[in-house]
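Final report, Chapter 2: Outcomes

The project's central promise was a pipeline that accepts a single protein chain and returns its three-dimensional structure in a standardized token representation, suitable for archiving and comparison. That pipeline is now operational. To close this chapter, we reproduce one record exactly as it appears in the project archive, with the input sequence first and the structure output second.
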Amino acid sequence: MIIIITNTNLGTGTETSGRADNRAFDELRKMKIEAGVLERADGSAYLEIGGNKVLAAVYGPRELFVRRLMQPNKAVLRCKYNMAPFSVDDRKRPGPDRRSVEISKIASEALTPAVFLEKFPRSTIDVFIEVIEAEGGTRCAGITAASVALADAGIPMRDMVVACAAGKSDGKVILDLSEVEDKEGQADVPIAIMPRTGEITLLQMDGNLTEEEFEQALDLAINGCKIISEKQKAAIKNRYGDE
């Protein structure tokens, strides 16, 4: 089922919040997005937000040889999310773990509705998301970077998917939680949307919020997505100019 959100009220960004990095309650961390950073991938993107550094690469569409996965009337979009061993303070054990497998599935499901998979039957589009440095919100950063990489690869899309999270920390509903706010906070609500229509392709919640707090967090996250969406478009424009 597709959910369409029409509430687009923007925060002022002026209220004091007491956050450790002095951001307002509705303020994103500093962000950078660059498209076309890898020569040998069909499409790629690099994203920084706060202390997060994420690289995404796309290969395909190409023929899918695994018969049990093949779809006769459309392509299969496969995502692999991975955190580098050096991406966190305590060295992470190399290889997939339960969390990376879960986020890989979530990322694939968030991106799939935006891609015209029916144009590439019996094919696969492989998306690789590598977290080089982590500082809270890596799944949203990964989905956002992956969408830019898909666009860079020339994959036909209904819209670029953009992801952002809001949540509750220190009793306040805030946008774009840092790692400390995420770990010490009371709730986290990551979402992904297609901005043109407001269709939500990912909605999760970890923790407890009242109905009013949830609506506030959802509004903040959607508004954050719309800001990030403009940066996605700018990254593609900078890559290709007026082509």
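Archive annotation: Residues 116 and 217 are 30 Å apart (CA to CA).
This record, like all others produced under the grant, will remain available to the consortium after the project formally closes.
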